[in-house]
Specification:
The complex is a heterodimer. By secondary structure, chain A is mostly helical. Chain A has a single domain, classed as 3 helical TM bundles of succinate and fumarate reductases, CATH 1.20.1300. Chain A has four helices and no strands. Chain B has a single domain, classed as 3 helical TM bundles of succinate and fumarate reductases (Up-down Bundle), CATH 1.20.1300. In chain B, α2 runs antiparallel to α3, α2 crosses α4 and α4 runs antiparallel to α5. Helices cover 81% and strands 0% of the residues of chain B. Classes of the chains: A mainly alpha, B mainly alpha. At the A-B interface, α1, α2, α3 and α4 of A face α2, α4 and α5 of B.
Chain lengths: 141, 129
C-alpha cells in the first residue's frame, strides 16, 4: 500500500547551521587528533608509547589512555590544564556532532510529529547529560 | 510515481546504489556505533572513577579488549575518512563527477591504514607482547 510522501519543505537556518557544523567539527576533530599525535611525539611518545596507546591518545588525550605505557611520570606534560581544556573542546564538538547525527537518523525514520518531538527532546537531554559526565571525568582524571 | 518512505529491507537492498549506497550505510552504522561505544565508555568510566563500581570495570574491560577495539578502530577510521571525503566533495561540488573513483581512492587509503595496526594488535594479543 502506497502512503503519501512527506511534503518537502525548505530546511531552514537551523538545519543549514547544523549541516555546516557537522562538516567543520568533523574536520576540526581530525585536526585535533593530528595535533595530539604531534605533541605526543614531541613529548617522547616515539619510544615511550606503544601503538594502541598512541591511538587512544590521538582519539582522546586523557592521561588514563597512556597510563599502561612506558611513560615514567604522566603528570609531566601528559596531564595538565592544557589537555583538560583541549579534551573539553573535543568532547563538546564530538558530542554535538554525534547527537545531531542521531537526531538526523531519527528524523529520517520517524514521521509522527509528537514522537519525533519527544525523541528530539530526549536526544538533547542525552547530549547535556553526556557533556556533564564527560567534563566530570576529564576534571577528575 | 511518488517515492514512498516505507521501503522493505529487501526492496532497499535491490536499489543497487553501489559504492555511494555502501558508504552511506557504513557511515550511518559506524556513526551510531561510535555514539554508542564512546557514550557507554565515558558513562562507565564516570561510575568506575567516582564509585569504584565493579560492573563499570567489567564493561570497560570488554570495551578495551583487543577483539572489541578492532570494531571500534574500523568505525572511527571509516567514519573519519568518509567524513573527510564528504566535506571535501561538499567544498568542491564538481568532484561529484568522479565520486566512484574517489571512493576507490578512499578504500585504497583505508585498507592499509586499517589492516596493518589490526595485524599488530592481533599478533601482540597472540604473543602476549
Amino acid at each position: 500500500m502506497m502512503r503519501r510522501p512527506k511534503p518537502i519543505r525548505s530546511a531552514g537556518a537551523f538545519e543549514y547551521g547544523m549541516w555546516l557544523f557537522t562538516r567543520i567539527s568533523g574536520l576540526a576533530l581530525l585536526l585535533f587528533g593530528a595535533v595530539s599525535m604531534g605533541i605526543a611525539f614531541s613529548l617522547g611518545g616515539r619510544i615511550q608509547l606503544d601503538m594502541t596507546s598512541m591511538f587512544r591518545w590521538m582519539f582522546f588525550p586523557n592521561p588514563n589512555h597512556v597510563i599502561n605505557s612506558n611513560i615514567p611520570d604522566v603528570t609531566a606534560g601528559w596531564s595538565n590544564a592544557f589537555w583538560q581544556i583541549y579534551s573539553m573542546l573535543m568532547i563538546l564538538l564530538a558530542s554535538v556532532h554525534g547527537f545531531n547525527g542521531v537526531r538526523m537518523i531519527l528524523e529520517d525514520y520517524v514521521e509522527r510529529p509528537l514522537l519525533i518531538a519527544i525523541l528530539r527532546g530526549l536526544t538533547a537531554l542525552l547530549l547535556v547529560g553526556a557533556l556533564i559526565v564527560a567534563v566530570y571525568v576529564i576534571l577528575a582524571s | 510515481m511518488a517515492v514512498s518512505r516505507r521501503v522493505s529491507v529487501r526492496a532497499g537492498l535491490r536499489y543497487r546504489g553501489k559504492q555511494g549506497m555502501l558508504n552511506w550505510l557504513l557511515h550511518r552504522v559506524t556513526g551510531l556505533g561510535i555514539v554508542l561505544f564512546v557514550g557507554t565508555h565515558v558513562t562507565v568510566s564516570f561510575f568506575g572513577q567516582q564509585f569504584g563500581d565493579d560492573i563499570a570495570f567489567a564493561i570497560n574491560g570488554v570495551y578495551e579488549s583487543w577483539q572489541f577495539q578492532i570494531f571500534v578502530y574500523f568505525s572511527v577510521l571509516f567514519h573519519a575518512l568518509n567524513g573527510a571525503r564528504l566535506a571535501l566533495m561538499d567544498l568542491f561540488p564538481s568532484l561529484i563527477r568522479f565520486q566512484n573513483e574517489i571512493v576507490w581512492l578512499q578504500w585504497i587509503v583505508f585498507l592499509p591504514v586499517y589492516i596493518f595496526p589490526v595485524v599488530v594488535m592481533v599478533s601482540n594479543a597472540i604473543t602476549g607482547a
